[in-house]
Design goal:
alpha+beta; 7-stranded mixed sheet; Nucleoside Triphosphate Pyrophosphohydrolase; 26% helix; 42% strand
């Protein structure tokens, strides 16, 4: 089964998301991607964050699991504390190269919590769980939010 990691990166009253314009359809997703063979989820999380946004995080803790089915697999969602750095997408990534084409773009952006609540987000159940976590605290142990 495929596995992917996603990062909830918070800083003050903002969350870092990847804004997609996929052939005219615009939405936000969390930073992250697939776990490669031989990687732990935590290693994949740090690699994906470095590649996609180049910021430093600390204290990653898995808070949600979303079973997205084929072709996406299990999404392991980690709460992360932003430490430092400016958004800077690695120029060797597929996302950066795809951006050069101009019609299927990736753009990392900080959204205020208020903006995030009403944003067009790829997974409504994950969006609801994140909003609930921001308002009332995130779970201590990971919870499965599939079909919630």
């Amino acid at each position: 089964m495929l596995k992917a990691v996603r990062a909830i990166i918070l800083d003050d009253d903002k969350i870092l998301v990847m804004h997609r314009n996929k052939f005219g359809r615009e939405y936000d997703i969390l930073i992250g991607g697939g776990v490669e063979i031989g990687e732990t989820p935590e290693q994949a999380l740090h690699r994906e964050i470095k590649e996609e946004v180049g910021v430093s995080i600390a204290d990653p803790r898995m808070v949600f699991i979303e079973r997205a089915g084929a072709p996406y697999g299990d999404q392991l969602v980690f709460l992360c504390r932003y430490v430092s750095g400016e958004i800077n997408m690695d120029k060797t990534t597929n996302e950066f190269m795809i951006n050069l084409l101009g019609f299927n773009t990736y753009k990392p952006v900080w959204r205020s919590f208020k903006e995030f609540e009403t944003a067009n987000f790829r997974s409504p159940s994950l969006q609801r769980a994140i909003v609930e976590g921001i308002k009332h605290g995130f779970p201590i142990r990971p919870i499965d939010i599939t079909n919630t």
